């Protein structure tokens, strides 16, 4: 499954007036173009594996290319190209494989020999697919292009354990998706030809490439009546509408989403870590209760024991900065509350929960490197005011 979603600020294009980056300085760079489908293949691979920090984007203006790109970086003067370990690698299909095999992150190939063989066939056919599609624009587009989309529809019937070509998202999807996206838009707009009509697998594949879960924000201070009446009688958030049912309770939802959707597993296979995970999850309510109660008394004295508990827990495994070493259900369960306690106690009581707790300090530092978490962080000013009103009776 994909690494957590990242919203990054895209760097501007470099053109003929731009200076080159400090080439071959140890930084891994993906020379790309945001509109190029070939470059998008490698961009998708990078993002899926969560390599936004490891592989820096260097967008090249293809209509006004800098001379140094051909002279010093990539003599073929095309994108994509990858600068890594003192060398330059090109060709999008080669780069999908290279990035997948040489960097951390979820693998884009399954272990199943039948799927591996089919992946080779589909990737080998991708050039033929593109050639035939582009040729179709000069002839009977609907007829000629239709055969190619029929090929994809048939290919998507091969495995039934997911909506993608190999069941789960793979290099094959990366190779085809940027082009199918463009063909779908162009054919619909120019020829009024819906490539998904009569092709349910292709329609499901395209849907599967989109975000799996859409956010619906509920104003808790002015809740819509329909939310309780028609959706979730408990009238609380979060809740998840999926497969015709609604599921609630945040801890249950962490498990449900992790086990029901594709993406990196949030629970390790190690039995010792699984046992400790259960203990930590079970104790979460106690941490919350004790810290919230302390806000009405002496938080520094009363809440300190809970943060000492977290500090000790973070010493349990030494193969990473998180509670189970690697990011897991436990971190997803605890961090929203640790974040809020950290902000509020520092602001109101001048109490730094990380002082004298190096593991907790390192934990928060590492959490703040995860974009999926940073995107969900609360507004400190709103939090302080809300907690003051709710727990201290002040405004």
Automatic annotation (TrEMBL):
Residues spanning the membrane: none
EC number per UniProt: 2.5.1.18
One of the protein's GO biological processes: response to toxic substance
Annotated stretches, region: Disordered: 1-20
Name by which UniProt lists this protein: glutathione transferase
Pfam families according to UniProt: GST_C_2, GST_N_3
Family recorded in the similarity comment: Belongs to the GST superfamily. Lambda family.
UniProt entry tagged with the keyword Hydrolase: no
Keywords of the record: Detoxification
Catalytic reactions of this protein: RX + glutathione = an S-substituted glutathione + a halide anion + H(+)
PROSITE patterns assigned: GST_NTER
